[in-house]
Every structure is written in C-alpha cells, then in structure tokens.
3'-phosphate/5'-hydroxy nucleic acid ligase (Luteococcus japonicus), 153 residues
Amino acid sequence: MLQGICDELAHRIPGIGFDAPIPCHHNYVAVENQDGLEWMVTRKGAIRAGAGDLGVIPGSMGTGSYIVRGLGNEQSYACASHGAGRRMSRNAARRRFTAADLAEQTSSVECRKEEGVVDEIPAAHKDIDDGIRAQTDLVEVVARLQTLPCIKG
C-alpha cells in the first residue's frame, strides 16, 4: 500500500522524493536476544525501541505524531509506546461524541468524518506530547510531524 501511495504521489507531483520507510510494527511477537538469552517478546501497543531503531509514535487523527530513535532501555525490553493511548474506550467515545464533534476536532485534517470512525476522535485519546515526555528514557525525538491527511478504515 505504501509503495502505491508513493507511486501515485510521484506521478502527480513531479520531483517529489521519499526517504526510506520506517518499519515500525505494533501488536506482534518477536524472538530477541536479551541478557544472552533468547526470548519471545510480545509487544501489544508497543514498538521496538532498541538502540538506534527508528520508530513512529502516532497521536490521534487530529494531532501530530513523532518519529523517534530508540535508546535500547533494557528495563523496558527495548520497548516504547505505540501511541498516545486512549482516554476512554471505543464504545464510550461512540456514545459520547458525534460525527459533528469529529468534524470540528479534525477540521485541519483531511480524513473521514463520519460515525464509523467517531471512536478515533482526538478527545478520546491522551495527549501525545505528554506521552512523549513520559518516555524520554526510552526514545529520543527525531521529528514531530503535523497531521495533514489521515487514512482510517
């Protein structure tokens, strides 16, 4: 999918260039060597943040995201958060907010603004900047990104 998007943008915007993609998965199991032992590390809602690893920590649909570099913190098994985290459950967000609320909170972002994705509303998520400040022992910030388009569902 990523390659298709890059190809389409290159077709539409002459001279555009792309850096190498950042492979950054969450919700997976990996076999890793820690303290001289082989472990199966499960990352649920977490990314690998080994020393020098580049990663992406997203905010919500209407907030920014971060590109980070892992510090390899052994106490966290070289992990960092996958995102801002939820302030409320998906169901609670669906009960509390409407598509109109979503449209208001994502007015500067090109994204879906209907009931089917109202559970992704920014108000249902924690503050991404607070989340980044809470893990300075796990990652260093390389760049802060501003959300322009958001593809969901």
User: Anything to note?
Assistant: Residues 1 and 7 are 10 Å apart (CA to CA). The chain has one domain: 21-145. Strands lie at 28-34, 37-43, 46-48, 54-57, 65-70, 79-81, 139-145.
